[in-house]
Specification:
about 850 residues; 9 strands; single chain; 3-stranded antiparallel β-sheet; Ribosomal Protein S5, domain 2; 5 helical Cullin repeat like; 33 helices; mainly alpha; about 65% helix; 3-stranded mixed β-sheet
C-alpha cells in the first residue's frame, strides 16, 4: 500500500484508502487470511487522517471523518456481527457474544489509533464523545439493546442449572457478565437493570420453591445445614462470575426466602426447634442458628426470646423442685430443709454457668443474649423458696461456704470461683439491700464466734461485692472486718494490763471484743443481772478501758457472749460450753438447790421469751443439765428447776447450744425502715432538681434512682409522697392534683435537720454533710443539726464525719455533753 506525495486529498480519495485498512482489520477479526499490520501500514493510515484533518478549508474533512468512523462500526455490526448472533441461541449465543465483544474491543482499539488525531484536536475542541466511547456506544445501541434480554435469560438459566448440581462453564458466564459491566462505561446501570434485577427475582423464586419443601421435610438442624450450604454456594458464585456488588443483595434474597419467611415455623419445630436444641445441648446447631439469623434484620430477636423462655422455664422448675423438696421435709429437721435450699442455690449457679457459656460460645457474647439471660434469671431469682427470699438464700449460701464446718466443702480455689459466681447472681436480685443486711448478720456471727474459716476469703468476697454494688454497699461490712483486727489488738493490750496488775486479775480467763456501733447490726442490750463472778470481770475491763479513753461508753451485749464452766456431776466433772445467759442461769444453782421459773426470771432480769429459750435448752433439749418439774417438753411459768447431778455424757467437754432468735422478721423490718428513708431522700433530691414534676414521672425517676439497691413498691412511693406533703417538703399543684411542686416555704433548722436525717439514713452522708455546712444557725439549733449528722454518721461507720460533726458540736456549745459522749462512743 503506497500513497503519492502529499497534495490536497479529497474526501473520496482519502476515505477509499482508509477503507482498505478497515477492510483488512475486519478480515483479520473474522479469521480470514490477511497479513498483520506493519508499522509502515499504521503510519500511512494515521498520516492520511492527519493530512485530511490539517488541510486548509474547505478541504478539512475532520467532521466527515468523525462521522465515517462511526459509520464503519455501524456497517460492520449490521452486516457481520448481528447476523452471526441472531442465528445462535442459549449457550452458543453467549459464546458468540463473548467472541464478538472481544473482536469489537480490538476493532475499537485499532481504529482509535488510526483516527487518533481526531481525539487530540477536533474532538477536544468540539467537546464531542471520544473515539473509544463512540465505538462502544455503537455496540451498545445496535447489539446490546437487541439481545440483552436473551442473554440475561440464558445466563439465569445456566445459574439455575448449576444450583441443581449441573456443571457449567463459569468462565463463559464471567465473560458475559463483564460485558454488562463494561457496556455501562463506568456506570453499573446496565448490569443492575438489565441483569441483576431479574437474577435476584429468579433467585428469590428458586429458593422460595426449595424452602417450601424443605420446611416440611427436614428437621431444624438439617434445614439450617442446607441454608448454610446455599449461602456458601451463592457467595462462591459471586467470587467466580457475578459482580462483587451483587453479593449482599443476593445473600439477602436467599436469607429472606430460606430464613426470614419461615423463622417462626423453623424455630418452633416441635421436636427439633430452638427449644429442643437448648434442651438437648446441641451446641453446634445453636451456633449455626446464631450465625444464620445474625444476618437477618432483627433475626436474633425470636432466637433470644426463645432462649429467655427456656432459661426462665428451667429456673422456675428449679424453684418448684426446691419448694416441693422443702415441703416434703417440713416434718423433718430444719437443717435438712436448709440443706435443700443450699442445693437449690448450687443448682442455680450451675444453671447460670451453663447458659452463660452458651451466650459466650454459641451466641458470640452478643448483647441481646446477655440481656435475655439477665431478664430470665431476674424472673426466678427473685422468687422465694420455703418462706425464704432469694436474698436470704444467697446470704445463707455464702455463710455455708465461709464458715467453719459449713456444708460446702471446697478448696480455696473453688471457694474463690464460687464466690465470684454468687456475686454474679446477686446482680439479678432486686432486693440487694435485703441481701446486704442478711449477709451482715451472718458475717457478724462468723466474726464474733470465730466461725470464719478464712479471713482472706472474707475480704475477697467484700472486694467482689464492692466492685459489683459500690463502696457504700460494703462499707459497714469492711468496718466489721477491720473492727475484729482492732479488737484482737485490744485484747492483747488487756492481757498485758492484767499481767501488770495482779490485784486486778479476776481469776477468770476473759476475752472482750470491742465493736464500733455503726458497723455492726443492732443488738438488744438487756440489763442482765450477772453472777458475782462475772461482775468482777466487767469491772476489771471497764477500768482497763478507761485508761485508754474516759469518754467512751461501753454497752455490753451479753447475748453474744460464751462461757466455759465446770459442772460437778456425780458420775464425773464435765466442761460445759454455754452462752452468757445459760451460764448466768446455771450459776444460780450454786446458791439454791431448787428455783421456780419466776425466781430465775427475776434474778436474771430477762424477758419471758429469753427465759423460756434458755431454760428449754438446759432442761428439755439433748443435754438436760437441769431437771424440770413437771417433766414435760415445754416450759411454763409454773415449772420448777433443779441441778441434775446425775447427768452424764460420754464426752468430758460438751457444747450446749442456745437456739438463736429468728432474726428474719427484724431484718425485714430494718430494711423496710431504711427504704422509707431512701425513698424520702430520693424524692427530695429529684424535686430539688426538677422543681415541678408530675406524679407518674416522679415515681418513675424515683424507681430508676433506687433500682440499684431495691425495687421500690409504687404504693410505698405514693405513701412517702403523701408524708412529705404533710411535712411541707412538697405541695400539690392547685390546678392539677397529679402535679407536685417543691414547697416554696422558707426552711428553718427543723426542715434542714429532717433533710440531713433523711439523707444520712439513706446513706447519702456526703450530701448530708455538704447540706449541714451551708446552714447558719444559732448554737442551740446548730447543735441539733450537727448532732443529727453525727448520729447518722456513727450508724454508718463514717468516722471521718463523726469527728467533723463532733468538733462542730464542741465549737457550738461545749455544754452539749451528750453529743460529746456519743462522739466518743466510736
Amino acid at each position: 500500500m503506497t500513497m503519492p506525495e502529499r497534495k490536497t486529498i479529497d474526501l473520496e480519495q482519502g476515505w477509499e484508502f482508509m477503507q482498505k485498512g478497515i477492510t483488512k482489520l475486519k478480515n483479520i477479526l473474522e479469521g480470514l487470511p490477511e497479513p498483520q499490520f506493519s508499522s509502515e501500514d499504521y503510519m500511512m493510515l494515521y498520516t492520511t487522517i492527519y493530512n485530511m484533518c490539517t488541510q486548509k478549508p474547505p478541504h478539512d474533512y475532520s467532521q466527515q471523518l468523525y462521522d465515517k468512523y462511526r459509520e464503519s462500526f455501524e456497517e460492520y455490526i449490521t452486516s457481520t456481527v448481528l447476523p452471526s448472533l441472531r442465528e445462535k441461541h442459549d449457550e452458543f449465543m453467549l459464546r458468540e457474544l463473548v467472541k464478538r465483544w472481544s473482536n469489537h474491543k480490538v476493532m475499537v482499539r485499532w481504529l482509535s489509533r488510526f483516527f487518533h488525531y481526531l481525539d487530540r484536536y477536533f474532538i477536544a475542541r468540539r467537546s464531542l464523545p471520544a473515539l473509544n466511547e463512540v465505538g462502544l456506544t455503537c455496540f451498545r445501541d445496535l447489539v446490546y439493546k437487541e439481545i440483552n434480554g436473551k442473554v440475561r435469560d440464558a445466563v439465569i438459566s445456566l445459574i439455575d442449572q448449576e444450583r441443581e448440581g449441573e456443571q457449567i462453564d463459569r468462565a463463559l458466564l464471567k465473560n458475559v457478565l463483564d460485558i454488562f459491566v463494561e457496556i455501562g462505561m463506568g456506570q453499573m446501570d446496565c448490569y443492575e437493570n438489565d441483569f441483576e434485577e431479574a437474577m435476584l427475582k429468579d433467585t428469590a423464586a428458586y429458593y422460595s420453591r426449595k424452602a417450601s419443601n424443605w420446611i416440611l421435610e427436614d428437621s431444624c438442624p438439617d434445614y439450617m445445614l442446607k441454608a448454610e450450604e446455599c449461602l456458601k454456594r451463592e457467595k462462591d458464585r459471586v467470587s467466580h462470575y457475578l459482580h462483587s456488588s451483587s453479593e449482599p443483595k443476593l445473600l439477602e434474597k436467599v436469607q429472606h426466602e430460606l430464613l426470614f419467611v419461615y423463622t417462626n415455623q423453623l424455630l418452633e419445630k416441635e421436636h427439633s426447634g430452638c427449644h429442643a436444641l437448648l434442651r438437648d445441648d446441641k451446641v453446634e446447631d445453636l451456633s449455626r442458628m446464631y450465625r444464620l439469623f445474625l444476618k437477618i434484620p432483627r433475626g436474633l430477636d425470636p432466637v433470644s426470646n426463645i432462649f429467655k423462655q427456656h432459661v426462665t422455664a428451667e429456673g422456675t422448675a428449679l424453684v418448684k423442685q426446691a419448694e416441693d423438696a422443702a415441703s416434703n421435709k417440713k416434718a423433718e429437721k430444719k437443717d435438712v430443709v436448709g440443706l435443700q435450699e443450699q442445693v437449690f442455690v448450687r443448682k442455680v449457679i450451675d444453671l447460670h454457668d451453663k447458659y452463660l457459656a452458651y451466650v459466650n460460645d454459641c451466641f458470640m457474647n452478643h448483647s441481646l443474649f446477655h440481656k435475655a439471660l439477665k431478664e430470665a434469671f431476674e424472673v426466678f431469682c427473685n422468687k422465694g423458696v420455703a418462706g425464704s427470699s432469694s436474698a436470704e438464700l444467697l446470704a445463707t449460701f455464702c455463710d455455708n461456704i465461709l464458715k467453719k464446718g459449713g456444708s460446702e466443702k471446697l478448696s480455696d480455689e473453688a471457694i474463690e470461683e464460687t464466690l465470684e459466681k454468687v456475686v454474679k447472681l446477686l446482680a439479678y436480685i432486686s432486693d440487694k439491700d435485703l441481701f446486704a443486711e442478711f449477709y451482715r448478720k451472718k458475717l457478724a456471727r462468723r466474726l464474733l464466734f470465730d466461725k470464719s474459716a478464712n479471713d482472706d476469703h472474707e475480704r475477697s468476697i467484700l472486694t467482689k461485692l464492692k466492685q459489683q454494688c459500690g463502696g457504700q454497699f460494703t462499707s459497714k461490712m469492711e468496718g466489721m472486718v477491720t473492727d475484729l483486727t482492732l479488737a484482737r489488738e485490744n485484747q492483747a493490750n488487756f492481757e498485758e494490763y492484767l499481767n501488770g496488775n495482779s490485784t486486778a486479775n479476776p481469776g477468770i480467763d476473759l476475752t472482750v471484743t470491742v465493736l464500733t456501733t455503726g458497723f455492726w447490726p443492732s443488738y438488744k442490750s438487756f440489763d442482765l443481772n450477772l453472777p458475782a463472778e462475772m461482775v468482777k470481770c466487767v469491772e476489771v475491763f471497764r477500768e482497763f478501758y478507761q485508761t485508754k479513753t474516759k469518754h467512751r461508753k461501753l454497752t455490753w451485749i451479753y447475748s453474744l457472749g460464751t462461757c466455759n464452766i465446770n459442772g460437778k456431776f456425780e458420775p464425773k466433772t464435765m466442761e460445759l460450753i454455754v452462752t452468757t445467759y445459760q451460764a448466768s442461769a446455771l450459776l444460780l444453782f450454786n446458791a439454791s438447790d431448787r428455783l421456780s421459773y419466776s425466781e430465775i426470771m427475776s434474778q436474771l432480769n430477762l424477758t419471758d421469751d429469753d427465759v423460756v429459750r434458755l431454760l428449754h435448752s438446759l432442761s428439755c433439749a439433748k443435754y438436760k443439765i437441769l431437771a424440770k418439774e413437771p417433766n414435760t417438753k415445754t416450759i411454763s411459768p409454773t415449772d420448777y428447776f433443779e441441778f441434775n447431778s446425775k447427768f452424764t455424757d460420754k464426752m468430758r467437754r460438751i457444747k450446749i447450744p442456745l437456739p438463736p432468735v429468728d432474726e428474719k422478721k427484724k431484718v425485714i423490718e430494718d430494711v423496710d425502715k431504711d427504704r422509707r428513708y431512701a425513698i424520702d431522700a430520693s424524692i427530695v433530691r429529684i424535686m430539688k432538681s426538677r422543681k415541678v414534676l408530675g406524679h407518674q414521672q416522679l415515681v418513675m425517676e424515683c424507681v430508676e434512682q433506687l433500682g440499684r439497691m431495691f425495687k421500690p413498691d409504687f404504693k410505698a412511693i405514693k405513701k412517702r409522697i403523701e408524708d412529705l406533703i404533710t411535712r411541707d417538703y412538697l405541695e400539690r399543684d392547685k390546678d392539677n392534683p397529679n402535679m407536685f411542686r417543691k414547697h416554696g416555704i422558707v426552711a428553718d433548722v427543723k426542715h434542714y435537720m429532717c433533710a440531713v436525717d433523711m439523707l444520712g439514713r439513706a446513706s447519702h452522708l456526703n450530701e448530708a454533710y455538704r447540706l449541714a455546712k451551708t446552714i447558719l444557725a444559732e448554737p442551740d439549733d446548730g447543735a441539733i443539726l450537727w448532732g443529727t449528722l453525727l448520729s447518722t454518721s456513727r450508724t454508718h461507720g463514717r468516722l471521718d464525719l463523726v469527728g467533723e460533726a463532733g468538733q462542730k458540736l464542741i465549737e457550738l456549745n461545749r455544754q452539749v455533753a451528750a453529743s460529746y459522749v456519743t462522739m466518743s462512743n466510736t
